[in-house]
Design goal:
Blueprint: E1 5-8, H1 19-27, E2 30-33, E3 37-41, H2 44-49, E4 59-62, H3 65-77, E5 87-90, H4 93-98, E6 109-112, H5 117-125, E7 131-137, H6 143-151, E8 154-165, E9 178-181, H7 184-193, E10 203-207, H8 209-217, E11 222-226, H9 234-246
Parallel strand pairs: 1-2, 1-9, 4-5, 4-7, 5-6, 7-8, 9-10, 10-11
Antiparallel strand pairs: 3-8
Helix pairs in contact: 1-9, 5-6, 7-8
């Protein structure tokens, strides 16, 4: 079956140069965007229930921009002045750059990994005497605590925000040729919103092994799996698939 409509389970790209817009124009397909999940911040009371005292940490580990936002939000709500001496360990350059929203970059001790958490642990290992706080969501990857425990560093997990299922009830009678997912939470949201969902002729595109597993565990057939050496991005994989089925 030819592809005419696609729903991407993420917010619409802010940049007009997004490859999704280019794909839509080039292949003459309609691409809609909708967040299947959203983030809600934990309250300062919930942080206290976790017995987290911000003043007791000498370093913070950031694995996402959400973590940055909610750490500084909680610090503000608790009237905690973040000390200049606090060290920041960021999983990627993008996260480290985002820190500039809250701190004067050149005056802080910031350590940057190379996109993956195992790469960041190499830097953490050199600072084993620090007391680390890991602000994170309630959907923390198993790899992260495993890596930190293996390092035998003093670290504390703090759930500063939660991943929440979005209300998609207005999509109940709307059908797309392809649904695109980037996380297990997106798959979870699909079935919480539509418990009777049947795939039928809908194609499913998924990014990452954990998303593939979640989709298959839910009984879905994954028609497009990303990344691959040939198609490292979702937009590339979608285009290849569309070109293949639409020319028939």
């Amino acid at each position: 079956m030819k592809v005419k409509t696609i729903l991407v389970s993420q917010p619409s790209p802010k940049s007009e140069s997004s490859p999704y817009f280019e794909l839509a124009n080039k292949q003459k397909v309609k691409i809609d965007f909708r967040s299947f999940i959203h983030v809600e911040g934990a309250s300062s009371k919930e942080i206290r229930v976790q017995k987290i005292d911000l003043s007791s940490f000498t370093a913070v580990i950031f694995t996402s921009r959400n973590a940055v936002d909610h750490f500084f939000r909680i610090a503000d709500e608790m009237r905690f002045t973040v000390p200049d001496a606090l060290k920041y360990f960021c999983e990627s350059e993008a996260i480290a750059f985002y820190l500039q929203k809250y701190v004067v970059y050149r005056k802080r001790k910031i350590y940057v990994g190379n996109k993956t958490f195992p790469e960041l642990t190499k830097l953490i290992k050199k600072h084993k005497s620090e007391k680390f706080l890991l602000p994170c969501s309630d959907k923390l990857k198993d790899l992260i605590p495993q890596e930190l425990n293996e390092l035998q560093v003093d670290w504390t997990k703090g759930v500063f925000y939660k991943t929440v299922v979005s209300d998609l009830s207005d999509l109940e009678n709307v059908f797309y040729d392809i649904l695109v997912f980037f996380s297990p939470s997106g798959i979870d949201s699909l079935f919480k919103n539509f418990p009777q969902f049947k795939q039928n002729e809908t194609r499913i595109a998924v990014f990452g092994n954990s998303t593939v597993k979640a989709a298959e565990d839910a009984g879905l057939k994954c028609n497009i799996k990303v990344p691959t050496p040939e198609t490292p991005s979702m937009s590339m994989a979608l285009e290849k698939y569309i070109v293949g089925v639409n020319k028939k």
